[in-house]
UniProtKB/TrEMBL annotation:
Protein name, per record: Methyltransferase domain-containing protein
Cited Pfam families: Methyltransf_25
PANTHER family registered for this protein in UniProt: 2-METHOXY-6-POLYPRENYL-1,4-BENZOQUINOL METHYLASE, MITOCHONDRIAL, METHYLTRANSFERASE
Organism: Thamnidium elegans
InterPro entries: Methyltransf_25 (IPR041698), SAM-dependent_MTases_sf (IPR029063)
Molecular function GO labels: methyltransferase activity
SUPFAM superfamilies per the UniProt record, alphabetical: S-adenosyl-L-methionine-dependent methyltransferases (SSF53335)
UniProt-listed CDD domains: AdoMet_MTases (cd02440)
Amino acid sequence: MHLFDKDKILQTLIQACTKKKNNSDKLIADQPSPPVKKKSNQTLESLYPVNQHSIKALTKNALTSIADSGVSISRSGSVMSHSISFARSSDESSSSTDILFPDEECEADRMVSQHYTLRTAFDGLDFSAPILPLLSQKDTVVLDIGCGSGTWTMEIATQFPSAKFIGLDRKSLFPRDIKPKNCQFRLFDIIAVGGQVHLPFEDASIDFIFQRDMNWGLSESIWTPLMREYFRILKPGGWIELVEPDIETNRASTYENLLINKLVNNFYRRQQDPFVSKRLSTFAATTGYRRIQSDFKSMPLGWGFQKLYCKKTQKTTLRCSEFARAAAQHRLDLLQSLQHWFLSEGHISRSKFESIINRLPEQWHKNRAYTNWHRTIAQKPFFN
C-alpha cells in the first residue's frame, strides 16, 4: 500500500473543503455556525469537539507510516553539515529562526500538520506547476528548499518513484533512515556572500524547485539573489513554486493584532519583509521568469460547518468543518510556538500571552477570521 492510500484517512478528516463524490453528504461551508456561549477562557476544543481521528493525532504517525507503505529503508551517507544560521548574510551572528522557533520537536510536528492542512486548502494538491509528465521520467530532479520534516518531499517521492527528490534544510528535522529510495536529504545553509547566493548544484541541473513557508528565515535582501540562483540551477523550461502565508490574520481581534504588530516590527528590525507573500510574482518577473501565475487560498479559523445528510436515517447533522478546525489549530500552534520570542523580545508577560491565546478561538469564530496563503509558479524560459 502506498502512503497516498493511507492519506485518504486524513482527507476524511478535512473533507470540509474537498468536493465529495457521494451526493448523500452535502457540504455547506459558508452558512452561519451554531451559536456559541461566550466564555472568557474558551479553548478551541471546547468550541469544536475534536473528532477521535483528529488531524493532529493522525499526522503524528504520518512519517512512520512510510515504513509500512512498501518504501525501502535507505541510509544516506552524503550529508553536508553546516553550523551557520539559515538565510542570513555572512557577517550575522544570530539566527532569527532559532529565536522564533527554539523547540525543534514541536516545530517538526507543526510542519507535518501544516502540510496536510495546506493540501486540503489547495484542493488536495501538493503542487500546482504543470510538471506531471516530468515526474514520470527517470532523469527528473526535484528540489525542496527548506524541507523541514521532509513530509512533502517523501510523499511526492513515494508517488513518483522514477524521479529524484532532494530536500535541503539547515536543521536535521527530516528522517535519516526511513525514506524512499529516490529521496535524499542534505543539511545546507543558505547564506548571502557579497550579495550572492550559491547552492550546491550545477547549472541547469534541476527540473522543479519547491519552496514553502521560508520567509521566517529569509532576509529581505536575499530574495532576489536567491531567485537568480534558482534561475541558474533550473533547466531551461524548469519550474519554481513559491508558497508563503500572510503574517496577519484577516478580521483579527485587538488582542491578536497586539501580537502580530510586535511580530511585524520584529521582521523589520531584523531586515526581513513581513509582507513578502504579496510580492512573490514580482520577484519572479524581475529575475527573468516567464509564464508567472499567482493565486491564494483563504483558511477559515474555526468557523463554518459541515451539513451532513444520511439517506439511511434521513437525518441531518451539523458539525464544525474539520478543515476550519484544523486551520484554527494550526494558527494557534504557530502563535504558541512563538511564545519564547514574545516573552523574551516582545516584552509580553506569560500570563498576558496565555490570556490572549485562550481568547483567540472564540474571537475567530465570532469575527469569521481567516488567513491567506499565497502561491506563485513561474518557468525559466527555454531560450534566453
